[in-house]
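Subject: DUF1850 domain-containing protein structure
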Amino acid sequence: MKPFLLLLCCILLAGSAQTTLFIEIRHAITKETFTIQQLSEDDELKLSWIHSVEKTPWEEYFTINKRGKLTLNKTRFQSFGAGVSPYGRGTTSIEDGYIVLSELNESFDSYRWFHSHDASFTWYVNENLWIHTQQLPHHESIELLVHHRL
């Protein structure tokens, strides 16, 4: 009887264990970690920057999907041209002077960018500042990854 109760307790505890999510920003080549942030499944990440040619703000909104992948849900920008993904993905609307592509549901194992202080790349978690552009090295290849721990 005791082995059965022990097994039952182990099964119940294992079933109730939740995965803890972490996001890491690191150098894409050297793998040097710059920061790690714990997340909840319902947290939203936002990357904002200034377009290098048009000098207008861009924003991309992400969540972590059920499979633990970074998922692009929405992007906002003020002009539509070269470098913008093909028209027709998701839902397109105009809000407060921004073109908004929503319901994108594009998943990635990681997100990479070439960091520039001039472009003001800034990350937010639930609209709270997480990483300011000056906290990462200028003109370096950077990546964001999702990690899971029980």
